[in-house]
Amino acid sequence: MAKQGRRIQDLTGLGEFGLISRLQSRMKVRLPQTLLGSGDDCAVLKLSAGTMLVSSCDSLIEGIHFELPLTPFLKLGRKAISVNLSDIAAMGSIPKWLLISLAIPQSIKLCDIEALYKGMEQICKKYQIEVAGGDTVGSPEGFGLHITILGETPKKRWFTRSAARPGDAIFVTGTLGDSALGLNILKYGNRWKGSKKDKNYLIERHLNPTPRLEESRLLTNMANSMGAMIDISDGLLKDLGHICRASGTGAELNEKLLPKSQPFESISKKNSCSNLDLILSGGEDYELLFTFRP
């Protein structure tokens, strides 16, 4: 990758350079704008004419953002990329490149890393994103992923948190609370009544979120009517609060209009609870939250 780290002791049979070469070979997407990609000290990237660079970074740390016994490495790889794509989608931008750094403890096996990268490659291939570099280091304890995403946006046509105005309507791209309820079912499955189909749907929403890139591109075509936008990672209330603070506004929500999926409603009904707290504050929905002019 673009930068090389210390030798990973638990993979001595392969060695760090062997590991990097093996992982590079799995990532098939190559963009014509990449003048120099993975394998040197830095990547050299060319922006399309009339665009600006957008960037974001995110860390996923074992024990804080995920628990390995509950998270298959393939799904972790997919999710790690998808949550970064969600940030790009919230800006109305187009993702292009990724820089991926791994902190790997001795407990992690080669097959785990290969499964992780298989999941990453599935998302990269779907959305045509190139892994242009990164780093690998050993970790004294706990597995960690650190990802930087780079993308393009048309000049003067990106969305921010500060563009909401009094009178704007508030929308989300999908349903809320599914991920948080899915995580609860993963942790305490025997306590939750309901069908296996509904439980699996909610678990999948937690482990394998969908970045709303297509919806984001549609919204950019209505940019003159758009207000603010953000992706819901911390929960509806917190992320709406970010918009309100940045825009100097308040917000009113109608509980009856909060969007819920059929599996969420079914599981909640069978367990005699509304799970309203999960809708408002559960987090990790990775839907787009945006305001629209009246």
Proportion of strand residues: 15-25%
Average residue-wise pLDDT: 91
Note the run of SSEs as H and E. Answer: HEEEHEHEEEHHHEHHHE
Residue stretches low in confidence (pLDDT < 50, at least 5 long) are 1-10
Structural class by secondary-structure content: alpha+beta
Explain what this protein looks like in three dimensions.
With 294 residues, the protein is α+β, with helices and mostly antiparallel strands. The chain has helices at 16-26, 73-90, 110-127, 178-188, 196-207, 213-220, 236-247, 262-270, 276-281, and strands spanning 34-36, 44-45, 51-61, 94-104, 130-138, 144-154, 169-172, 226-231, 288-292. The strands form three sheets. Strands 3-6-4-5 form a four-stranded mixed β-sheet. A hairpin with a 7-residue loop joins strand 1 and strand 2. Helix 5 packs across helix 8 (262-270). The longest helix is centred in the first third of the chain and has 18 residues, at 73-90. The relative contact order is 0.17. The model is unreliable at 1-10 (pLDDT under 50).
